[in-house]
From TrEMBL:
Catalytic residues as annotated in Swiss-Prot or TrEMBL: H69 (proton donor/acceptor), C85 (nucleophile)
Pfam families reported for this sequence: YkuD
Protein's recorded name: L,D-transpeptidase
InterPro entries named among the record's database cross-references: LD-transpeptidase (IPR050979), LD_TPept_cat_dom (IPR005490)
Length: 109
């Protein structure tokens, strides 16, 4: 079973498998005026090539309107620049998308 921890201060997404560290990725988070929400969520939907600024994959969270997704602006990764979503490099979000099922817990701190 997978779980995801997103550390906003470090701008890192850490993927755990069976409670043990598995992978880590640098991410972009929400800008100060539209911060990434803190709390415990789940992945509730997934989409391939969702279009627009969402890059190659979308993993929707159980808080309406927020998700983990790719980007058409790779230079934004590592910055506080989004409207609250978590952005990843497309190659990384494709890897994550292929690993985690709907229902995966996501904790944002």
């Amino acid at each position: 079973m997978y779980s995801i921890l997103i550390n906003r201060a470090a701008r890192k997404l850490t993927l755990y498998k069976d409670g043990k560290f598995f992978r880590q990725y640098t991410v972009a988070i929400g800008k100060p005026s539209t911060p990434t929400p803190v709390g415990n969520f789940r992945i509730i939907n997934k989409a391939v090539n969702p279009g627009g600024p969402f890059g190659a994959r979308w993993l929707g969270l159980s808080i309406r309107g927020y998700g983990i997704h790719g980007t058409n602006n790779p230079s934004s990764i590592g910055k506080a620049i989004s409207n609250g979503c978590i952005r990843m490099h497309n190659r990384n979000v494709i890897e994550l998308f292929n690993l985690v099922p709907i229902g995966t817990p996501v904790r944002i701190v």
